[in-house]
UniProtKB/TrEMBL annotation:
Name of the protein: NAD(P)H-dependent FMN reductase
A single GO molecular function term of this UniProt record: oxidoreductase activity
InterPro entries the record matches: Flavoprotein-like_sf (IPR029039), FMN_Rdtase-like_dom (IPR005025), NAD(P)H-dep_reductase (IPR050712)
Start and end residues of each NADPH-dependent FMN reductase-like domain: 3-141
GO cellular component annotations of the record: cytosol
Amino acid sequence: MSQILLIMASVRPSRVADQLADWIHARNTLGLSIETVDLRDWPLPMDDEPHQPKQEGFDGYRSEHTRNWSRKVDSAAGFIFLLPQYNWGYPAALKNALDHLYSEWQGKPVVITSYGAGGGGKAADQIAQVCQGLHLEPVPTRPALPLKAAERTDAGRLVDPAAAFAAQAADMQAALGELAAALHSA
């Protein structure tokens, strides 16, 4: 079965990305093989490779962390980007993770799932442009999870993600279906 990486883009100490990743896994009624990848676990120093990411004819990453990240991304058939909207954009950690590589992303389908006070649509639009530059293939449906409607604990955690995002469940399942179709047509 094709491996899909669900990449959690938030590295902030106080975040709800893990809860949203669990919510996405629960919407996976198609039996897709989805592995959650937390960018906290992949510290990639900013632009530390001496050359641009590998393109035609270049395959010599110097840093072990870049080689490991390259192998991880290259092993995936597709992706789910789970990204918060920060000041109308997406997190720098995701941009850095994307920019560390090039050819490993090409031609692979991706679901863009955003979240924020209004659902994170501006961040989703921005990352869609970056996906175009990397030759990733975003599926048409982009689930947007509005956090303002979600009830929170005193610690900032979501009380019940399933209830908070019940209205978005069909979009998530549609996006996963589109991802599955893209994987099968490849």
